[in-house]
User: Which sequence fits this backbone?
């Protein structure tokens, strides 16, 4: 009996530690979403970008911070906000109201002046059932004078697979792009599509 009683204090201590841990907000690399959100205000780009990336990795616990970051002045922060919200939306059930809510939050990014958040939003929205709005953004980017933007666009279209079928003509045209990388990705996408019956 006394042996059992001796164990009670340690068990109570364990319960207290467990309860304290449960009461703490979810953390990533030892920091909470609110701490990372504060770092988005830093004057140092590297600090902002690391904070935005960290919030994207946190997922659902950082949803509010990611939503707010969609309006950040820094396009890299906006890109990671799109990425994080995309992960949350695409991991939720197809008929979940959350998917529609996040799609509505991402839609304004289709007009973003910076290519990275704009194309990331377009790819996500295409996956969320809004291809009519999203694909034209990706197609338009195939004609961008910047090679990096054309590469990002064709990569997004390639990842969409059959969802990018309405853009088949434009993807076929991309096989004549000056960039060898764009040509290769476009040709690979075309080769993976079902061939029409004769």
Assistant:
């Amino acid at each position: 009996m006394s042996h059992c009683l001796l164990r009670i204090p340690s068990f109570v201590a364990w319960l207290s530690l467990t309860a304290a841990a449960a009461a703490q907000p979810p953390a990533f690399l030892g920091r909470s979403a609110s701490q990372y959100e504060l770092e988005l205000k830093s004057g140092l780009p590297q600090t902002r970008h690391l904070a935005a990336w960290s919030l994207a990795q946190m997922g659902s616990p950082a949803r509010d911070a990611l939503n707010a970051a969609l309006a950040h002045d820094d396009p890299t922060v906006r890109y990671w906000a799109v990425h994080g919200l995309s992960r949350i939306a695409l991991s939720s059930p197809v008929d979940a109201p959350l998917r529609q809510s996040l799609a509505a939050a991402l839609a304004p990014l289709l007009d973003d002046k910076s290519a990275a958040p704009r194309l990331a939003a377009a790819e996500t929205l295409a996956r969320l059932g809004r291809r009519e709005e999203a694909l034209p953004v990706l197609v338009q980017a195939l004609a961008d004078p910047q090679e990096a933007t054309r590469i990002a666009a064709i990569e997004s279209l390639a990842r969409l697979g059959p969802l990018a079928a309405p853009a088949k003509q434009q993807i076929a045209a991309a096989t004549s792009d000056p960039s060898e990388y764009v040509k290769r990705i476009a040709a690979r996408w075309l080769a993976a599509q079902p061939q029409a019956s004769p």
